[in-house]
Fold:
Amino acid sequence: MVSRGQSAQCTTNHPVHVPHEWHEPGDLVIGAMASHIYYIVPKVSFKKHPSQDFYDAPCKVLTKFYQQILALVFAVDEINKNPRLLPNVSLGFHIYDSYYDSKMTYRNTLDLLFKSHHFVPNYRCGIQKNVIGVIGGLSSDTSWCMANVLGLFKIPQISYGLFQPAINYGTKFPSFYRMVPNEDLQYQGIIQLLLHFRWKWVGLITPTNEAGERFLQTIEPMLFKNGMCSAFTERLKFNMNYNSNKLEMAEDSRILFTTFTTSKANAILLYGESRFSIWLSAVLSTMELYQLLFPQKKSRDGKVWITTTQIDFILYSLQKLTVNIRMFHGAISFAIHSKEIHNFKDFLQIIRPHWTDTDGFIQDFWEDAFSCSLSNSTHSTFSDNICTGEEMLESLPAPYFEMTMTGHSYSVYNAVYALAHALNSMHLAGAIRNRRDAKGKLSPWYADPWQLHSFLQRISFNNSAGEEIVLNEYGELAAGFDITNLVTFPNNSYVRVKVGSLDPQAPPGKELTINEDRIKWNRRFTKVPPLSIYMETCVSCPADQYPNSGQDLCIPKIPNFLAFDETLAIFSSSSALLFSLITILVLGIFIKHRNTAIVKANNRSLTYGLLISLLLCFLSSLLLIGKPNMVTCLLRQTAFGIVFSVALSSILAKTILVVLAFMATKPGSNMRKWVGKELAYSIVFSCSIVQVGICVLWLATSPPFPDVDMHSMPEEIIFLCNEGSVSMFYCVLGYMGFLAIISFTIAFLARKLPDTFNEAKFITFSMLVFCSVWLSFIPTYLSTRGKYMVAVEIFSIFASGAGLLACIFTPKCYIIVVRPDLNNKEQLIQRKL
Structure:
């Protein structure tokens, strides 16, 4: 653990302690989770403790995000110097890093609450930290992990970077607040921006993750509704793996190079987080190499990058000589609304490597930002260049550090003040009490974190920039966004120029205001503002057609059903006929030898009924082949369900008769009157009539009907039988399963009865096969579409029917045909004896 007088390094090997933290004690402590350090963690080797694997991994410093840490420190320092806010009390803070890793976020969140020098969950050891609220995290993953822990203890959490709709968070985590606006407003702003510049042909780039998919599912319908089309949608595998300190990105560079050389779209909407911009900058720089290798396929000049609020343009120190940020010149970005805070720039100018003994982040920041090694460093990668300690933060280009307060830092600053004002309101309301600390000293202020919620929920104050900070009913900031324009310079730096705003209080459709005169467009554009139109109007293809790769032509979708002339259908039909012939052959054998002992021993009528029902089961699979029509749709599942129920009922009757026949052989047994054809017929009829009733109810209320599915497969139309009532379909399957389980249970219990009457062990195996097939059928059936869904059901019918046929009748046919000498009552009794 980093203590006073110590500083951690990225390359330090601490198998147990967290190497980066900043702790300043106070009467009340604000916890925080930064996102400053990123470890490139390899797969766990299982050769040493996993935490040691983590800290031994190479470490990357997101130097620009150090400002967010400093914004919290600056806000706490301001509050402690303000006699009108929290008088006679000192605020402290304890900052950890999430390392962009869920495991470390969970661990460090617990450390914030309970750790002194030993990690004991749910216990405070040594001097207790009175953590009254926690600020963080920057990303949705970090915020979610923190909320899972903090919500248990009702500790207020204020996120400064989570933009997804907060309704679910508010429901699951009532202790969760956000110092940023709702993302839904940003979506409206994107659409209004595109409408303002009449950009109807837009490319979309997102990382391949849940957030990226959620963005596409939201924005694409909005584009279509407003007469716009997506020229391309690239889901890129955002991975920060390094090979010899170089990002592995060749494949994605080829993808984007191909896209950019073929697409006529000039407007590109970029969604992701700040680390995605690091990776994308490297990818786009690699594209320049492809242009040298393939000059005949030159990328279309000029792109307008439209970036969402989550993205900040940052770079790693290793990219200083390899990545050119100027490719983003002219980008239009949505940003968290912010104002310059008085004295914050002066505060940044006094920052030096040894300005405080408690900052556990600054050594790695300083060495990485200025590519030098501090005198007390033992593991620096910049040992050839010694830091003077007098380097100036203002000399760093903007991708590595900014002197003006960024939107995220502004959110952190306001989050600290929100907690302070809530505490102050709590004090004025008389809810603050005194208590004695571990040394017996009377503490003037003590607050239970859960008490802050009623004050945070109605918080309203003016910050030092004169802006009113208010949270809405969902616990999110009631504010808008700034629209900024990125202006880059030859030294790889940039400035962000405010060119507009997004105001949620404005009339509908007027939320966006843009000052075009302030925008600096990409230097390659010959006309400004640029055009991004391919067609005057974007027209969606009809439901039975799909667009070609150039998205300028609609192509008819291909019908999808199991036609009789397809290989799969031919194989299925042949298999159905083969199994039917085998069943007929077995039935013929049993009829021919109907007076032999083995046929008579197990009730001939039930055997004939079972074989006939299996024959119909195999033949019912033919109803699934071909284009669905009204007749086949009505018969497909109902016929299959009824004939299989008859088969299972016959098996159940045979199993029960085996048990009763054995019990009837005992002296003085009253079971003889129950053994007979009447009982067998009653069981088959009563069990089958239930399934018939289910099917009749199904057909009477919500029968299956021919239908088409035009959306599940982009290039095909699926012709199918709509089940009408899915619940009734699963009732049919469920009843079959019920009969199978009952038969299996009785047969399993009776499997060791004497062989003379025992068919139970064969039935046990057959039911085991049957249940296995249909248990695996349901998930497989639900995960397939079109003809393959039909094929799964056909295969299940064949597998289960063949399993019953083989397990029950193969041993009997062997004796009847191959060993007729055993087919008599005396031999059967001798085998048992």
About this structure: The domain at 21-180+406-470 is CATH 3.40.50.2300 (Rossmann fold).
